[in-house]
Amino acid sequence: MVDFTLTDEQKALREMAHEFAAKEIRPVAWEYDRDGTWPEAVLRKAWEVGLMNAHIPEQYGGPGASYLEGALIEEELGWGCSGIGTSLAANGLATAPLGLGGGEELKKRYLGMLTEAPLFASFCLTEPDAGSDVSGMRTTAVKRGNTWVLNGSKCFITNGSYASFYTVYAKTDRDAGHRGISCFLVPRDGTVTVDKKEDKMGQRASNTATITFNETAVPAGHLIGEENKGFKLAMMTLDRTRPGVAAMATGIARAAFEFATEYSKQRVQFGVPIAMHQAIQFIIADMATKVHLSRLATWHSAVLLDQGRRNTIESSHAKRFAADAAMEVATDAVQVYGGYGFIKDYPVEKLMRDAKIMQLYEGTSQIQRLVIARETLLPRRVMEPAAATA
Ligand code: CAA
């Protein structure tokens, strides 16, 4: 049965996330954007009320929210400020491979760590020469006795400067392409260097760093999943986290749409509020449609996961549509504001800068189209057993 009705609990969760975004995030969002500083106080409060780590199962101390519930939270956080929202959501990305392939001991210790204290973890996949082309990575992990020793650098790592541990992808067989990649849980120690905090166009409240592993040794048990199966783990992780990114993009688009709608009712030109002009009405109508469809695609991709079904194509539909829509809606919001939209005293230029990253991180809009084209023209028919049950 197709039913988009939320339960009373889900409505209450969304309301709680909205209230937090309105009271704790919105009032400081433009300040953190201007200064590009780490919003520690806001993150701590969000952790206290349970808006961080919502995905962590109850047996590890989390609330065990469903993917749909995660999407409800992320839309509201994205509406408040997607830079702060990204900082809050990044533990979900970092721990998804652990949830999918980690041993019980590892899960207990590291998922438990995040629910016991407001700590952070980062997902380390991208490298300077391996962005979209994941299998081109150069970081290596070599088995020495009972340890794996990692060497290499990862870039564009969300929360990298503040992470207590990292889920890191490395080549364990250099000649085997995507079939020679494994995933490791790497605690932060003296051999892990945080090299660079990026000065970004948008989402300036989120921390983005370069992380270098220099003879970093981890116990053999810190291998997540099977040796040389890390590429699939990364792809399955992204299937699970792209709905959340789509939700965040929907939140940005909704914020831009609301600001533009309100402004169009106040701003008078040619003797009437500009909302009376059809030129503006059509922009507002297109914005409303894009927000609506972004949310529907997001919810669909999340519900499939909650049903234990593969959602690769739906996840890419949602991520690509919502990200592109957020960029278009935020750009149109600046257009509705006219010249004022270009000025930092008004709220929408930040949203336009923030929206841009949605088309880039967790797979560019072009990569999503590549996935959609492959899944359409050459669908993978065999469902991975882990994906069926995760
Ligand atoms: N689930 C399970 N298995 C999958 C899969 C999926 N969704 N997608 C692919 N696979 C499997 C394939 O079946 C294939 O298996 P076999 O080895 O059995 O043949 C294998 O993986 C290789 O698949 P492809 O041939 O499709 O691989 P490819 O090298 O052509 O790459 C790609 C595919 C879609 C381009 C992929 O590399 C990709 O998604 N790139 C984008 C990476 C990305 O999103 N990076 C973002 C980093 S995270 C981030 O941005 C967050 C931050 O903190 C900033």
Characteristic terms for this protein:
alpha+beta; four-stranded mixed beta sheet; four-stranded antiparallel beta sheet; 11 helices; disordered C terminus; binds acetoacetyl-coenzyme A
Descriptive overview:
- The structure is a single chain.
- The protein is α+β, with helices and mostly antiparallel strands and 390 residues long.
- It is built from eleven helices and ten strands.
- It has helices at residues 8-35, 40-48, 67-80, 82-101, 104-116, 230-266, 278-306, 312-337, 348-358, 365-377, 385-389, and strands spanning 120-124, 140-144, 147-158, 163-171, 181-187, 192-197, 208-219, 223-224, 268-269, 272-273.
- The protein has a four-stranded mixed beta sheet with strand order 1-4-5-8. A four-stranded antiparallel beta sheet has the order 2-3-7-6, with helices on one face.
- Strand 2 (140-144) and strand 3 form a beta hairpin.
- The longest helix is centred in the middle third of the chain and has 37 residues, at 230-266.
- The protein starts with 7 loop residues before the first helix and ends with a helix.
- Residues 385-390 have low confidence and may be disordered.
- Bound molecules: acetoacetyl-coenzyme A.
